[in-house]
């Protein structure tokens, strides 16, 4: 701020003196040697070493615990071992250096002091939880270990101290199971079987029906399970337990589920996870205790309502594990009103503090509330838009902050189809589940994630139906139309992941009876086999048997004029948000559209201009392909001109429509680009047809024509069509094609000019690698333009430019700019030619490249900034040097990819262009790009 203000000479001098002073004071205050790096961060008694800004070091969970502690909220004390230690652990081959071990021990002493208990003490035992926590929350990571510090002695101590033997042994059996599973790698079901056996023997229905004696028996059997599986007695030394648990957290960072999750969400491997060690509080001491999770607003719909679930007399994961069905959080007000009130006050405060919806976890021990976690809540795209616009209206955030709250890709979820209500009503509701993630889903039922993937690859639409999803199912969830589960609540895995992916999901449809072995599911009495259709509505939770047609989202209906904006709440919010975005962004937004109706949709979505109109797409229209073929088959110029003459009025009509749909905004039209054989029938097909005709001995004209066609197809055959006779090379060898296309463009513009609509056509010559190629074509375009203007008696403004998509074109951009009035980066071909990856064949190996981390992302989806991107920046610089006013844009697929949009913003382009459906995403991404530059984020 002050930097921008003009300062008088005296003031400037004063300022510099002050600066020098500050510097000197700082230098004096600094200890002579650099302080050793801190690896462990304490929190407790209202003070924490860390805070909300330290997610990189403390992970999300650790930073939230520190921030809540500093805010004076009731958080059990503990410490966070930093994410850096995770990297050290791996670098040292799975060891923790002794100085860090010492730091951990120091922190443990501090924790014991704060809690007034000691780890391993029988009289007054400290129990802790060991929790993983990376910068980004990752459902595929380690399970939390609770009640660590219990052993055969301390459990008796806990009983003596609390006078509650049931509670002590309930805690111990939970600990053995969690530690056994997570640290010793013993499958959970071994413990579950032992537990069920005891319950059965003692006639207990619920877990909570077992008394102390029953739980002592469970503990005994659990220890046997552990001993048999690990060939060692269950570890009794609390310090050994703690080290084992800590190392298990670090190990879990590299387990397959976690790696898969990071790959899907593009989270780098090197950031590591932190470990949180925290004094236990107990939700399982009896009926005055509980544990729960919640959100400050509804994460599925965005509605402003307190949202969540809890269980009385339970611990930790019980709520999400689906063992007992949790109660909705509103019930808490009745059973524990004081704790409920406090929870509402605290979470409302947290929401205002973080300026975002909070996803929180809490435990109530004997009516006393404790906060165990808070983070910004994951939400559906739908909810994101509702929440951002609501919070701005409530003045909790500014419109700019509202923009930053919404991921650009979330907007594409809002465009997802919904059911046609009339069709939907025709089927009876078979059952209901919890509406975990909105959207209409209709598909063929499959029961495993692997089948979901296989069937989808065969072109089928599938619905993944599971008892409960686990992180291993994520690949199936990704491809399914929707996910339906029989158990689990609104915060179960399927629900959380579904919302995050924008995948329609209904969970906890308790009436489903799934038999994975028979591959059937019974829904409300009807048995469905794998492959039969089912449908559900993720917004209401209704499930139906059969297929239901889907229809466009409300937003699309409004844009298409089939619904009034006033009657769609979500449209109004969507529109408001994007208008805010338009105020922030500096990049222009155009769309790639070939036909008038696409152009209209793009305009309605907010595109102001066409960045790429591919003329050849028009060649495939009704009754046109024959004319195109005649043009290609002509073996002399006169015949070719005759065929082109027939195409001219058709192209002129298309251009007229596209220009008109854009209301005078710029339209870039690319001259013919693909190799000609793409317009001819396949060689093999022709050979079959000819053989058939020959077999029936039908000589005559048809056969003769087919033979000619085959001959021409064979002539046109190329070994590398992508590198062959295409792009500007076609216009150079057949100038009459360029001539006809230019004429169609200018005649359409002239017609509009006469109707009072001014358009400035931008004629784009593709695949230019040498300035002389462009010069050759520009002469034709200029000549035709002059002719048309004279014939029609109108003056037209127009530009001639090129696509930069051949590396040589980028490298010699200064020369190319002598002729080109604009550049449009064709990043698809530019990527193909820079890597030497055939776009059509790269699928075979790119997945493996990504798996092996040779490439982090698919360079055809997200621009390769380090390589292809350099060609872009180089061409921008060189092009501007020759022609400072040159217009610069991008029209490859990357124009609709948020991180690529950031790149293009920074590269200084004037606009990005993408498919019409991505226009909203790009508008928001461009605003984010502009803001991050200003904010310096
Ligand atoms: P996740 O990352 O899977 O959410 P957490 O580390 O948050 O795992 O732990 C899950 C649950 O375990 C918490 O929601 C809470 O109920 C329970 N928990 C964790 N630490 C403690 C603690 N110190 N005292 C009581 N319960 C705890
Ligand atoms: Mg967990
Ligand atoms: Mg948690």
Parts with pLDDT < 50 across at least 5 consecutive residues = 1-15, 933-937
Strand order of the largest sheet: 13-23-22-15-16-17-18-14
**Assembly state here?**
single chain
**Number of alpha- plus pi-helical segments:** 38
End-to-end gap: 17 Å
The biggest sheet amounts to: 8 strands, mixed
Which band does the percent of strand residues land in?
Answer: 15-25%
Helix proportion: 40-55%
Task: Specify the overall morphology.
Answer: elongated
Ligands in the model, by name, code or SMILES, are: adenosine-5'-diphosphate, magnesium ion
The average pLDDT value, as a whole number, equals 91
Tell me how many strands there are.
32
Radius of gyration: 33 Å
> Which class best fits the helix and strand makeup?
alpha/beta
Concise account of the structure shown:
By secondary structure, this protein is α/β, with parallel strands linked by helices.
Task: Write up this protein.
- Helix content is 47%, strand content 16%.
- The chain has 937 residues and is an alpha/beta fold.
- It has an 8-stranded mixed beta sheet with strand order 13-23-22-15-16-17-18-14.
- Helix 7 runs antiparallel to helix 8 and helix 14 (381-393) crosses helix 22 (569-584).
- The two termini are 17 Å apart.
- Residues 143-144 line the site of one magnesium ion (MG).
